[in-house]
Write a structure and sequence with these properties.
The structure is a homodimer.
Chain A lengths: L19 E5 L3 H10 L5 E6 L3 E3 L4 H5 L9 E3 H4 L6 E5 L2 E5 L4 E4 L4 E3 L2 E4 L3 E3 L7 H4 L1 E2 L3 H20 L10 E5 L3 H19 L11 E6 L10 H13 L3 E4 L3 E5 L2 E4 L4 E3 L2 E4 L3 E3 L1 H6 L10 E2 L5 E2 L2 E6 L4 E2 L14 H19 L14 E6 L2 E5 L5 E3 H15 L3 H17 L16
Parallel strand pairs in A: 1-2, 1-9, 2-5, 9-22, 11-18, 12-13, 12-18, 13-14, 20-23
Antiparallel strand pairs in A: 3-4, 6-7, 7-8, 10-19, 15-16, 16-17, 21-22, 24-25, 25-26
């Protein structure tokens, strides 16, 4: 029999010496924390409801049929195969008992910790807009991306079979939110429509099929310099995306969206890139202060006030930009990676009897792609790239960050193939359609 | 507006001259028929409920996490991208009006034909065994393979977390049916268990985790020479599969199977490789004779008696081995490909005013893989391969038959990587687990 936990009867982590560290979430933040703790004397239990890490920056590619789901997902057990002090536990954490230092999973088993790192990420924020949660497609999990892809491809097939079902003879897709995810998704949708008509010979009028990108602000890419937002706007418009700024969504239904001014837009699918909040149940339930957008307030070293043994990192936390209360950092992959790694290092300092040190964010820039051969990149020291150069930088950097050689190679094959002649591509409607049409 | 069909109002195939040919089903048979008709003066409408062709021989690899779903599926529109007389229609055919020469789809639209080729394939045959249809996993669609993979991987994760839930401390997987699919799946499951314990460090006792292969006959691989069946039996047993011959399943429940002798076997998942019948609704409803296993009786040229304009091909038909009533052929990919191509050629002969010619099956052999470096191949002229040589022949032949360069390349990358060090692999549980546990 394997050793069992004395409290719950469930199997304990292997009997390595040292402190018990529990990391919740295998996103960029949790993964970075666990990697810092790999091959050290602590014993790490990494918990996630998925058995894979998802490379979120490429989700819009899965949603628009440029990449396969497996291209952007990597099994957690494979990542830590040779790191024997890190154990993976597949499950969903339902609560943290911060006083008795114990997490409870959905299957009622419990795991005790000496140090806890919470990296549970973000979820879509619908701002209370009627119907938005029910009738839009967010892009925050692999399942989201698969569902959106199935919706879009099924819509195009239905439009091919029955153009008479659409007022204009063609469907409209609406993307809500003009940040990086919205810009990238709108650009990629336009390219998918193009390839669907030109290569797949779908009988859809490309002049009438519309991708509409809505944002309440008067510019795109709010986190970027204004010139880059303008460049994204011009590029998207030149490629046929209908960009409408200063438009607020009032209601979403299964057939379209109503704008604040009362205008109605028929839509075959509505993509939600409108904003993120903390992923519901767990981080939000921690007995500490939360910021405006639900993010957990943390100290300069990323721990909770009164609980130095608990850190919150990544999108779930209001990560300070620098010691002294500046910030919080934007919810970016780089922030998640750096804050997760920092929390991991602080656990090692505490185990070694040292005091913790404050977190400082090292800006490595931001990027957003607008389509083939076009992206914007805002790098440190004021350096700005756009167009093909920006796209190549974006491509190279993201692939470098992809975990695991195999995935990287296959993404490269996919990408180059797509770039060279945009071939078959993974345009599979992989829903379980057996019972449907 | 695109041109519309005068009868249904739905868009017609483009106005190319010539006869209207409808092909139902994009499996090996339908695809081969459509390829024969590509770049000819007829106009072809190819209908399938999926927008992709599935390479069925590799489904067991998807189910056991060796390949990704997209590795074995290829979008139909990509296959016929440059063949402008072939039009794809995504939908499910619900009925054929053989007198008025019209097919009706689930969305109520209709398509008229001058020639019809039916290649709707097979479905699992459960022989009326209680619970088999509800509680086993067949392996006949990509959805089947994904569901089985999710089941198996989720079971292994649950066993890692809670070995106390299993009597033996480990789960048992049962495969029903000792034909090629059953042998291949049992062998691959055993390898998956091995890699799960050795590489993924799942805390499962490999000595106690069992794969049980059941068959009612006294040998494996009934369609192959007896020596190859013995070789498969010995190889599977040497690799740890529990092969039980002469065992009939009486009942399947969510927790296991009961054998005809009364013995109960706990099972975390039951794979159904027990047999196939004609895919329900359509081919079975044709007003013609059907064989013992539901297959449609066809004439020597594969057409229906009294309806020379209708052919049934592939698994759905009792394809004659040779003129004069020999046969029927086994339900193999090669039979589907050859019969589909034959039916396509006969349409061209009839359009040209020629008489049709009978079908003759050219035996190109059969293969089944038992695992890494082991397969059996029964080639024409009595040639037999087994072991590593058989495996290499199996691998090469199947990859040659994979459609499309991109897929072939990625499958090769996957395979070689897997062969060299069995790495990450696509062991993703891609079910929508958000609401589960």
């Amino acid at each position: 029999m394997p050793p069992t936990d004395p409290v719950s009867g469930s199997p304990a982590t292997p009997a390595t010496p040292g402190a018990r560290v529990v990391v919740i979430g295998c996103g960029f933040a949790g993964l970075a924390a666990a990697r810092q703790l790999a091959d050290t004397p602590v014993q790490v239990t990494l918990i996630d409801r998925h058995n894979f890490h998802t490379f979120l920056p490429f989700l819009y590619q899965v949603a628009t049929a440029g990449l396969d789901p497996a291209d952007v997902a990597y099994p957690v057990r494979s990542i830590f195969r040779r790191l024997h002090n890190v154990v993976f536990r597949h499950g969903r954490v339902t609560s943290v008992d911060i006083e008795s230092r114990r997490v409870t999973l959905a299957d009622s088993s419990t795991i005790d910790y000496d140090h806890l790192i919470v990296g549970t990420g973000a979820a879509s924020e619908f701002f209370g807009i009627a119907g938005a949660a029910e009738h839009t497609r967010p892009l925050y999990t692999l399942g989201d991306a698969r569902r959106l892809r199935n919706d879009v491809l099924s819509t195009l097939e239905a439009a091919d079979a029955h153009p008479e079902n659409y007022d204009d003879g063609a469907p409209t897709f609406v993307v809500v939110g003009g940040g990086a995810t919205g810009v990238e998704t709108a650009g990629a949708l336009m390219e998918l429509l193009d390839v669907s008509v030109r290569q797949d010979r779908l009988r859809i009028d490309p002049q009438r099929t519309r991708v509409i990108l809505l944002d309440g602000a008067d510019r795109l890419l709010a986190g970027f310099k204004e010139a880059l937002g303008r460049y994204a706007l011009e590029t998207l418009r030149s490629r046929g995306v209908v960009v409408r700024l200063g438009e607020l969504v009032e209601e979403v239904t299964p057939t379209g969206v109503r704008l604040a001014g009362g205008e109605w837009i028929d839509a075959a699918a509505v993509v939600w890139a409108g904003g993120v909040t903390v992923d519901g149940t767990l981080a939000a339930s921690l007995p500490v202060a939360h910021g405006r957008d639900g993010r957990v307030a943390v100290q300069d070293d990323l721990s909770l006030i009164g609980h130095p043994e608990v850190s919150v990192v990544g999108d779930a936390a209001a990560v300070p930009l620098a010691p002294g209360g500046a910030g919080p950092c934007p919810q970016l992959a780089q922030v998640a990676i750096q804050s997760g790694a920092h929390a991991g290092r602080q656990v090692l300092r505490r185990v070694a009897g040292k005091s913790t040190v404050p977190f400082t964010y090292k800006d490595k820039g931001m990027m957003a792609t607008i389509g083939r051969r076009s992206a914007v990149a805002q790098l440190p020291r004021g350096l700005v790239l756009r167009g093909t150069l920006g796209w190549l930088a974006w491509l190279g950097l993201h692939i470098v960050y992809l975990i695991g050689f195999r995935n990287r190679l296959i993404v490269l094959v996919n990408w180059w193939w797509r770039y060279l002649n945009w071939p078959g591509g993974p345009r599979l409607i992989d829903a379980d359609v057996d019972a449907s049409q």
